[in-house]
Amino acid sequence: MSTHELERAAFNSYRVTQKWVSMAKGDFDPRVFYTCEKVRIFKAHNDSVSVREVFFLPHGIHGHNLMLTVSKKIWSVLRVWMVNEVGDPMGEWGRRGVLFKNIAVNQDSESQVTVAVGMVTAEGQHTVEFLKLTPSFSFETVCSLETNLSPIALKGDLVALCDAKSKTAIFNWATSGYALLDDDDGDDSDSLRAKYVHQVVFAHESVLVARFLSLSLFAMPELHPGYHENAMAHRPLSKFEYGTQDGMCISLSNDLKSCKIIMREGSDPWRPQDDINLRVYDLPFNPDYYRQSPPELEDPPETQSPPYLFPPRLKATIPTSRGRLVATGIRLGKCGTALWVKPKPWRGVAEGMVTMPYIVPELEPPRLPSEDEREKEYVMGAVLWDSALRGDTDGSLVSADEPIVLKPFEMKTNGKREDWTCMDYDEETGMFALGHEDGAVTLCSM
Asked: Of 100, 218, 104, 95, which Cα lies nearest the Cα of 151?
């Protein structure tokens, strides 16, 4: 990084920090600070193709800050963009007739693999491609794996591959080492959504698997050569069950000892029109955890003391609203800042059934609302109770015994008719990106 780039990054960090601090204190003045310093909208894909996913890549890959967008229609296309100089895409990758099931971005910028792409061909063949982004911004296949599982998390040489039921495979793409995790609780339910995977996190000598109704903690297994989907599975050390969640994010500190979990309650249109909350949990590190014991005394992983203390402790709630929501993702950074999309209310001719945003004037036929009447989506933000951005508070938030209520604030509103489809957030630079149904991407700088 040059001196000029370092100065610019330091100034940007200071500016973003000042905004978060003022928002946390409740004295943010939009007449002095704009929530978004710069907003850029650009066409990432064709009008008839919606943006289904957007990802910020780790900083410094080939000396740039880069972003990925994914479109899905007849087949899927992955494109890479320069964040600071959005113009034409720097490169793209896709195969005719192939749909992407899921994409995992590597958290390690030095790794030989940048992304893992789970895909299915028109003939029904399921594979995972491990792709490297070259200095010329083309994608090269490092290796491929034929499997029905989808990539959920990628960190260095390790990838977590999951199904829609209970199995998670840990695979080392460099050595072909493999282990299988299974959190099956014996429920014979046929509902696939009940086991949908929200996130997999490689934690301190362990793996956290967050599914639709439960969070499971596994000891990091020993990997053995050879990939076998029916191999003997490791069982969870601890498990935490909860109700249906529309979104979830797990965030670990740099030393992996501090873990925060944020969840959004399920938004069912048939329920009464009450507000819902984001719930924020603290998963403390176990001070009695021991992992390295003499070989002759070492217990099986399932009987060892777990590295984190279950169940997670509810520390805070953040009010939000129910409604029609496509961009269900929640982002929680290491510094304790969270972003999510607040949906439009359910509205329609028959409440709870029709989700088109009709206006029903008295003695007049239903009609679509004007721009002023239209309900809008909002990007909302919050600062957690123990964030360093609240460093000069009196400590009452941290010491509270009961869950506290954190006040959210509006970051950006959707002035377009199209709903947002996806979101990603880069806490370090204060940037967030939003995909649209019409192929556009909104890139916001705090």
From this structure: 104
- What is the value of pTM for the model shown? 0.87
**What is the 3-state secondary structure of 233-300?**
EECCCEEEECCCEEEEEEEECCCCCCEEEEEEECCCCCCCCCCEEEEEEEECECCCCCCCCCCCCCCC
CA pair distance 12, 14, nearest whole angstrom:
5
List pLDDT tens digits, range 44-87.
Answer: 777 678 899 999 999 889 888 999 999 987 889 999 999 887 77
pLDDT at 184: 84
CA dist 69 and 49 (Å) reads 12
d(CA 128, CA 151): 7
Per-residue pLDDT, averaged over 428-434, amounts to: 92
Query: What's the whole-number mean pLDDT along residues 349-378?
Result: 56
Name the range with the highest mean pLDDT among 165-179, 283-297, 395-409: 165-179
